[in-house]
Amino acid sequence: MAWAKVVPVSHFSSGRKYIYFIANPPVAASKIKANGLLIPTMFIEPTRRREPPHLRTGWIEVICGSMFSGKTEELIRRLTRARIARLNVRIFKPALDTRYHDENIVSHSALTIPSTPVQSAGQILNLAGSCDVVGIDEAQFFDQEIVDVCTTLANQGQRVIVAGLDMDFSGKPFGCIPQLMSMAEYITKVHAICVVCGDVAHYSYRLVPSQERVLLGETDSYEARCRRCFNLADRVKNEERRTAHGE
Ligand code: ZN
Q1: Distance of CA 247 from the midpoint of ligand 1 (Å)
Q2: Domain ranges in the chain?
Q3: How far apart are CA 180 and CA 182, in angstroms?
Q4: Catalytic residues, which ones?
Q5: Confidence bin at 50 (pLDDT 50/70/90)
Q6: Backbone CA torsion sign across 73, 78, 83, 85
Q7: Of 237, 74, 41, which is closest to residue 164 (Cα–Cα)?
């Protein structure tokens, strides 16, 4: 979900005050609420022309954000629309991600779409064949090879939609996602809601003490936090660590 900024502009005419709202990027007037300065907008897909495969132009879209930000929901939404357009869609996810279901991609809100689990990014290239749209979920779990795979697919004229965590639990860029973002035509950063204060959140805060980068098991191990609440909690953790070591 992208956000459009809405700026109120007042205008006086015949002694009356009129207020206009200018949205950037532009959105339908019916979506604008006078009391809100930020309104959500949907990603509008570039049109896919029905042309022979050797004339097609491909591209890469990245959907990134923290845990609980709706990345998978947005991926499923785009893939469903591609299917409605009768495009040939193939969906992949890393085999290690089996939290909810072995084969399906399932979002936190239980939306689901069938997918193929793969052991390595290279397998995607073989299995995707000449389909129109390739969806990849949890891309941060693939190694560096995923960058070349996405580039090859897009160069072949395929639309590649990649969803993944952009930061790990410590707030550091996660694996191949930053590189994919720099090479993508379109990037959508989705946000969660901070469970502490209700602000917009973009950190995945880990509730358990493990320092491993990959720790599956979502709801009970992580929560979404805004910058302020993420940093405050980190400070408390560091102090606790220092006290435990008698420093
Ligand atoms: Zn917060």
Answers
A1: 29
A2: 2-40, 53-193
A3: 5
A4: 138
A5: low
A6: positive
A7: 74
* Fold observed for domain 53-193: Rossmann fold (3.40.50)
Please determine, for residue 38, whether its predicted confidence score (pLDDT) is greater than 60. no
In tens, the pLDDT along 89-122 reads 999 999 975 555 566 767 666 667 788 999 999 9
Please tell me the distance from the alpha carbon of residue 32 to that of residue 243, in angstroms, as a whole number. Answer: 51
Two tokens at 171? 């707030």
pLDDT band at 37; cut points 50, 70, 90: very low
- Predicted confidence at residue 34, as pLDDT, reads 43
Q: What's the CA gap between 179 and 210, in Å, rounded?
A: 26
CA of 35 to the centre of ligand 1 (A): 22
CA of 204 relative to ligand 1 center, distance in Å: 12
In our burial notation (b when 16+ CB lie closer than 10 A, e otherwise), range 127-137 reads ebeebbbbbbb
- pTM of the entire predicted model: 0.76
Please give the single-letter amino acid code of residue 30: S
Between the CA of 200 and the centroid of ligand 1 the distance, in Å, is 7
